[in-house]
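so my prof wants the structure for this chain in the tokens format not the other one, which i didnt know existed until like an hour ago. anyway here's the sequence
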Amino acid sequence: MRTSEEIYHRVRWDARFDPARFMMGVSQRGAPPERVPLPRFTPGGEIPWHRVLFFEADGEVVWDRPSGVDRIDATEAGRVRVPRRLPSPYFVSRTPHAFSAPEAAWTPVPEDAPAPEPASAPLTLLTWNTLWDRYDSDRIDTARRRPLLLDALQAADADVIALQEAEPALLGPLLSTSWVRESYTFWADPAGRDVADCGLLLLSRLPVREAGLHVLGPHKAVAAVVVESAEGLVTVAVTHLSSDHSANGASRRDAELADLATGLAAIGGDVMLLGDFNDGGDTPQERLGMPDAWSRVHGAGDRTPTFDPSVNPLAAVSSLTGRASRLDRVLVRPGRLRPVSAALLGDVPTPDGLYVSDHFGVRVELTGAAAAGADDGGTAAEIVRRVAAALPEGRVHLAGSRRMGCALPDADVDLVAALPGDGDLAGARERLNAALPDAVDLREVTGARVPGLRFGLGGLRVDLVTVATGGLSPAEAVARRTGLGEAAATALGAVSDADAVLAAADPHRDAFTRLAREVKAWARARGLDSAPCGGLPGLAWTVLAARTAHEAGDLPPLPLLRHFFATWAAWDWNRPVGSGPTRPGGSPLTVLTPTAPVRSCTAQVSSAGRDLVVEELFRAWEILQSTADTGPVPHALLCAPPPLRLRHAAWAIVSVSPGPDEGRLRGRLLALLAALAEAGSPDAHAWPRPVTADTSLVQYAIGLGRTPPDGARLAEIGARLLRGIPGAGLRRAGTAVTETDGGRTARTLP
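here's what i got, hopefully its the right format
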């Protein structure tokens, strides 16, 4: 007969058992045994193992000390009935409860309860830090705020409500309201201590199939539910990270994010993480590899705060700095669902100036990839129409991934405008300004080989390249591009290249577009997608995807993705991909454009960059080798953030003020990498997205490889290569640093 300790750990760690379905009987002096849910038992705590008398699963005794029964392996009791999305032991199971009118009580939802058909409307999520009453209770008017909060939650009409800083005093009135009782499932047992212990609360009016909790630290946790949406199962989690009120708040947040990254990576399918991250920068998104829904909808430059002491007196009570920040977010793992709207709640006070909370709520709508793609494509088509109407004398072409139909949700709209005569960029800008009054931040692109404009429109970023056709009709410019000079021909080649990639994928264009999206999402997550940082541009990845689809596009999605990584991980990169003239000696990795002027679109990839790409291709191949053909694509593992801190002995930070100068700095990153290679760091690697982005600086991290230069050499390189860019600098740093009005806040690199 095994010991009680052995049985406990068997249930706790064996994925075949569901700990939430086990009870432990603990002896009490002079009283019947106390029944303790197994997830609430603490090994090594106040209860010694010899006081554990029995284990029950689903009401059946599976181990009993007095009688010598040990039949946990001889029964189906306590076994996981349906494969779980929330992995054990990271998540400890919770039992969702729904209100039963006949019993006038909140009762457990049976695991096998039939689920109603989910509505086909967008999935709506709401996160809100409700401001608990533990501190400054005499200054925050909780009694008046609570009814306002309940009304605001009802008006939000959200499918899933995620609250932070909730308390039993709020839980009682909330679960007593008719609209909650009639429509929502509570994620755990309302009579338990979960809300009191961690302040997290989840309500769902979609069917809840699983629920779980993972403790991150004292009073810090992540709670999650798996709900049935119109797009299938979706995991929605809520957390509240440590604030700067805590000792070593930044370090604690860093540890909490590392913990979350590990746990969420093991969850398959669509995952949303909501909550108060207590970080106004981009660290949570970068560390978790989950973009912020607000930025996807409103653009990366929109820093609308959710905590603003300058306008909200409740925020002013607790603020340490008085700085407005966007602390509350809805992070969305790239997958089937994408955000289509994001709005603040509670940002307007009552007539007498009272706000619902010190934080504003964030409500996000998401829709399926097919619908989102159609909507996104419609937006892009409308942008092309409006730009073409503003430039009637020219011919405006959609280029890039949107022309090929494989754009990621937040991809730029790449346009090429062939204009007669000398092109008249200034005139084109004036006409666009007049015709597009809703365009955001319309400006000329500086430092580009071909003149162009950049602006935001319809929630998307637009890059417009202009080509002067001289006496040639703009309608003939693409077909006769080679006669317009190398720079113009290259710009117009973006149009013909996109069409040629599609043709190369025949007869499997649908398989190509799906494969290309998956590959580009992977390349982005692993930092391999930026030509200015020495990576492969989107065109290179689509060329590789088109060739794979042409050869094996009749494979199912997962085997096709596996075939992609297997093919290119084992490729002899001494051979160029494509046909056409190449330079003597070649490049470490060569992918040629499919149309004239044929050129390498990967000339910027160094030997170290090639080795990194091959390493990442092999990693992805190995992950997919262990995945069953009938299973879902393990996006969480494929797209998990890379362990950059393990790759580099030291880091440099290159910074610049936001705006046009950021583009100039990005244009010099390759030169910086080349200079670092000359200085003895050939394996230096620039992370292609800002590691921080506050209102005063944009900062990029450069890993300095195994043999980093000293600070003096680094300063010399920066002074030489960043000359002429106001405020730009290069410095040695062990961590990414955000400049703030009050000092510096260290952030661990992704």
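also thought this was worth mentioning. The longest strand covers residues 208-217.
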